[in-house]
Description:
Blueprint lengths: L6 H16 L9 E4 L6 H12 L4 E5 L8 E7 L2 E7 L5 E5 L14 E3 L2 E3 L6 E3 L4 E3 L3 H4 L11 E2 L1 E4 L2 E4 L9 H5 L2 H5 L8 E10 L2 H6 L7 H4 L15 E5 L2 E5 L1 H7 L10 H4 L3 E4 L3 E6 L5 E9 L6 E9 L5 H34 L5 E4 L4 H15 L16
Antiparallel strand pairs: 1-20, 2-12, 3-4, 3-6, 4-5, 5-10, 7-8, 8-9, 11-12, 13-19, 14-15, 15-16, 16-17, 17-18, 18-19
Amino acid sequence: MTAMENPDIARVMRHSVQHARDNTYELVDEILKVPASNYTDPARFKLEVDRIFRRLPLMLAPSCEIPNPGDFKTMDVCGVPVLLTRGQDGKVRSFINSCTHRGTNVATAPTGNAKRFTCPYHGWTFGQDGALLAVAAAADFGEVDKSCLSLKALPVAERAGLIFGSIDPKSTLDIDDFLCGYDALLEAFNFKDWHFFSSRTLRGPNWKIAYDGYLDFYHLPVLHKDTLNATGMLGNRAHYHAWGPHQRLVAPDRAARELGTRPESEWTDDLVLNGVWTIFPSISIASFNGGGRGVMISQLLPGEAVGESWTRQIYIMEKKPSEDQEAAAHEQFAFLEVVVRDEDYDTGLRQQRALDHGTLDVVLFGRNEGGAQAFHKWTDKIIAASDEELPVLFPPLAAE
Length: 400
């Protein structure tokens, strides 16, 4: 199945190409004013962590990061230690990475392959399914019901070659409802069969300052004039298409250049799937072609304080690069580190320092910045929703 066989993707691309051919452009109705304190206030930051990141399903990893039975990954998500495993049955499971004896992490390596997990403190052993298999020196320890001492399971699901999970074991928000049908579009990438190439972590400013940059093309010709836009081919316009809080950004000028003069029968997947795909609250997926077709998944999470965030850049490729391609793939990924670290995040950290000093009462998002406007409105909406109201916010939707 090609990307254009998905009716939603076809509609988005036809929309953008038609605007490009007509030299027209869609704008939202008004400029949005967002309180500058939303980026600096510790109380607001705590609300965001508690009511967004600790309640919503999050994209935790691409499936190809733990593709084989026994593969596992550990990560910290807003202070919660998470263990992802793939069982011998091929199913992904998620647990709080905490021994039910004293709470120590049962897995300490970032990634690996294991049939069981033995706590490094006292030697209690757990299976890939989280079950407590053995208590060290059981006769001396005393009688316990092992069935009641499994690792605490977390909600998790694989969709479109991506692993989604919640860090709240009591979450009642259905992952499919949360995705609002957006995963059906992401299926066009066929990520489940892709190759995990590399990853690294970058420090950034407040998570919203960092994420704002992923939601607009307005800054591309200016901030990235010597890097991403060295050829002068990037425009500053984007069309935004939404599935609930999730958005896809498409550049109409690029659509005109790459697709505008071609019949639809020549619209190949690598061109149609270009642009930026975002998954609320803080995931960005962007396509590149160094050493072969690939995407960089930017997995952004709040830090411990309001002015800090961490972004894991994950580079996956449609096919494992050959020896001849590998150097080009590393060069592409290294280039993207420079762009984000030295341009986007360096600018964001300076913005953070200025806002911390009270330079502005509000920050502005123009009529051409509809993606960030939608993001901030959804952020406010989710924070305001009670646990009972939260699921109602995510009915199955067509693109808006």
